[in-house]
Design brief:
alpha/beta, 9 strands, Rossmann fold, single chain, 6 helices, binds S-adenosylmethionine, 7-stranded mixed β-sheet
Length: 206
Amino acid sequence: MGTRDSYDEVAEAYAERFTTELDGKPLDRALLTHLVERVDDLGPIADLGCGPGHVTRYLADQGARPLGLDLSPRMIEIASAAHPDLGFHVADMRDLHVPDQIWGGIAACYSIIHLAPAELPTAFAEFRRVLRPGGAALLSFHLGDEVRHLDQWFDRPVDLDFQFYQRAEIESALQDAGLTPDAYIERNPYVHEVETTRATILATRT
Ligand SMILES: C[S@@+](CC[C@H](N)C(=O)[O-])C[C@H]1O[C@@H](n2cnc3c(N)ncnc32)[C@H](O)[C@@H]1O
């Protein structure tokens, strides 16, 4: 059992717990709104690792043309049922199977956390390939050095590694892939969140 099967296993419970979470995350909403303004009419915004689709919904409500992609087929079924007016597809951010330069923006909220450090170059090269010049990527992750392993989540069996990252690791992998970091925000957890320091990086596709 890996990441895909684990998220299939917890998809319903995850959706129930997190679908309304942006209501209590004003800074995250502001950053996503900024991404929408920043991308403007350059092209669609792909929500990579969209889970149940609540971030995709928020992007649409801010005036973007988003679509959601996720490794977990069950997540995609749930997102599609909840937001039938938006497009959701099963996909792996490391190998997206879409044409070059097709999107204006990428939102990756707590989804690169399931990539091992050695996988970042492949994923970020893919981000650059699919973004139009001048496009932007917004990435959120847990700050630190640890790998937190879960073999149970929401009372279901899983086999999930949560890879924490340092700012410099992500920024240098982005830079190496041709994505220039231009903003970094760090925040403490909100009271309803797991107690980790949260980091978000905005990068431009050069
Ligand atoms: C912690 S959840 C975050 C979901 C949503 N972005 C949010 O903020 O609530 C991580 C999501 O990333 C997806 N994911 C993990 N690895 C992925 C990959 N290589 N490609 C696409 N999606 C992936 C998982 O299936 C899961 O839905």
